[in-house]
Amino acid sequence: MKNHLAGTKIDASVCTVVDEATKELFKKLLRDFEENKSKAMDDECFEVESDGNGDVKSVFNKGKQKTMNQALKDREPVTRALCRLIYGEALPFNLVKSPLWKEALRLIGEYGKGLKLPSYHEARVTYLKKEVECVEKGLNEYKEEWKKMGCTLMSDGWTDGKQRSITNFLVNSPSGTVFVKSIDTSSFAKDANKLFEMLNSIVEEIGEENVVQVVTDSASTYVLAGLKLEQERPRLYWSPCSAHLIDLMLQDIGGGKTFKYTLDKARKVTVYIYRHCVLLSMFRRFTGGQELTRAGLTQFATSFLTLKRFQELKHPIRQLFASNEWAESTFASKDEGKLVERIILVDVNFWKAIKYCLSCVVPIFKVLRLMDGNVKPTMGYIYEAMDRAKEQIKVNFHGVESRYKPIWDKIDLRWNMQLHRPLHVAGYFLNPRMYDRPTMVTIHEQLVKFNESIGMFGISAAVLMRKKMQPAKWWSSYGDECLELQHLAIRVLSLTCSATGYERNWSTFDHIHSKKRNRLEQQRPRNLNKVPNVKDKAKSQLVDLDDEDEEEGDDIGFHETTVVEDEDDDDHFIPEV
């Protein structure tokens, strides 16, 4: 039975019902049993005693197997100690999901008793140096990929706790994103020439032959610096961060009277509910514990996610304000409470306006989620994603031009002015997923083969895998007959479009420069800056293991009605008008 529940396949079939924790528990019981059995045999001893009559007595020690209750009891103090560490040092709960955490505890368990814990000096100096050496050794693998597939240099600015303008530089390629360096740009953040010199020096450091594009935010000084960099180095392209610009696009759309009216009323309701603990408790009972607010990628995105929550929780919210519990509460008799009640129960236009707003922005918000992802290169998708988003908006308004055209105009203004970049067009052209119709004008013999699915481009496996593989991997597998075009396609389709998928991690760097570490010499913070690459690599390896059974590329979802399929429950809803 134990072998059955542990899934060892020894003298029993594998149980498919029990969870992993139970399996591990029974595996431990079996290991303990074998160890105790061996120990009992090793320790078994015989004492020969004579009572004068020739009788011999054998005395031996017997091992005892731990029961399940004993195993659970042994785990209790260890688990409590680990959780107490998390609580006492205010560590994030996500720590327990970290592959580094799991690996460390696994090795501690295998070591057993007598482990000497790392000293303050070892953590601060000895093993920090070793970790940096390990990271730098691992960077060589990335650098080899940069030579083959090209890379994107990304800059991402943020402000630390001391109000300093810090710019972090990262290099992105299909294998992942690597932190390069962090520079205090407080003294020249508004100087385009200084920013150009900074970007130029880092391109030189990485190798101009490896850098295909440089991505920065769309601030005017960075735009000037990026254009100057293109003039200085014609082989590379500068691109504004797509996620930043799409967020600005959302703000343009949200600047109309209807949006301001809707967001203002939604804000009044939200603030009122969350300002009163008793009312918030009532709200959670009616909604089954669901919240009305949810953080988005940006402040503007958060506002529209809140509108989406209003739409999803419309019925329980209305039930709350129509209930006897509300009517009998002190809130119902106050002016502010009456105002909120009218918004929810009487103001029909409020709910219609929510539908209208979501119909306008959810397709664009999905593009933002696509661009902000840091798992797969997005260069081959942005062009088509924007087209699909516009078409979805048109569908949401049932093809009535007077309703969808004003939204299209605001999208086109940002798109044509800043987002419609040469690399985006090239990415669309070279993405086999977008190549179901060979209608583009050919400019080269190899493009003719690709366009008309001649040779390896037309074999059944290549056609089948168009929507299964990432575009760059598809070209690597099926583009061997056109080496020059294959080289170009791989370098373009391996690129990212956004730097914002990594900016949420910069609180780590703020801690590095905090008072707790203010006695560190300059080299140690630079070493600490490099160490997060270990975490990122471990996370990417974990994602690969978790996703190995999934078909590549399916999460983009361009073959569906909506723009992007996302497993998060934030943005699958597109309302009808």
TrEMBL record:
Region (Disordered): 516-577
An example Gene Ontology molecular-function term: protein dimerization activity
Domain DUF659: start-end pairs: 118-269
Taxonomy, superkingdom: Eukaryota
HAT C-terminal dimerisation domain segment(s): 464-523
Pfam annotation, one family: Dimer_Tnp_hAT
Bias-annotated ranges (Acidic residues): 544-555
Protein's UniProt name: DUF659 domain-containing protein
